[in-house]
């Protein structure tokens, strides 16, 4: 059964610019989806319609049984938490702790539940030691985790991450991978926009490929990276491993480091 459903969805910004033309898809509860595609394809516009920040100009968006056109953004954001692409569009408190606390307090969680959720989210995002800091004194990559923590603390059924990998080093990527695992284990539905193809290969089974204001294909990473036409149309780069593998003339289905190591070991 679908938990998120887009039916013939079009979105036109107030200035008349059409960013999404005609999108149809369904996401089941507990699914973990990556959205990839060229800049300006309409990825952010699409996910903002899931938590009601934007309402479709045409068509229907149904989230957890709610037609988003009939509900306020406040009501929808209790179901779907959206982590903004740019943390500075989201952060407005002067300590990390206050920022994370804000969401659960708005949701009127009990004092002990707020404390529990803040501690849990801070631990998961590696922020425990910077709780008293002003977020604006922290690097952008850490500010991103502050925004992720503030959404995790709300314990929404749906978590939307917009470009979480941008500017992250290996520690940040590992933290993100752990967060995805933890959320999946808790049965959360996760939608992640990313340009990092290595991250896609290592963490997702289902990929939505967007281009030209539409959803081109719903597939898995292996199919994306073995479909040269799709790659070209959506202007996606293959993961580094896939590039090396094709230069070496190895089988094209190898997309991750682990698979490459396995293949070379067997071939020795
Ligand atoms: N508020 C707005 N008013 C008018 N046009 C907008 C607005 N916000 C975004 N757009 C335009 O809509 C198109 C789709 O933008 P969107 O942010 O959804 O794309 P995206 O696929 O997420 O791109 P990126 O990977 O660069 O973040 C772009 O051409 C963008 O310039």
TrEMBL record:
Q: Classify the protein's membrane topology as the record does.
A: Peripheral membrane protein
Residue limits of the ABC transporter domain? Answer: 4-237
Quote one Gene Ontology molecular function term: ATP binding
Pfam annotation, one family: ABC_tran
Q: Which GO terms describe its cellular component?
A: ATP-binding cassette (ABC) transporter complex
Keywords in alphabetical order, please.
ATP-binding, Cell membrane, Membrane, Nucleotide-binding, Translocase, Transport
List the subcellular locations: Cell membrane
Q: Which family does it belong to?
A: Belongs to the ABC transporter superfamily.
The family database entries (PANTHER family) matched by this protein are listed as:
ABC-TYPE COBALT TRANSPORT SYSTEM, ATPASE COMPONENT, HEAVY METAL TRANSPORTER
| Record protein name field | ABC transporter, ATP-binding protein
Which species is listed as the source?
A: Blautia hansenii DSM 20583
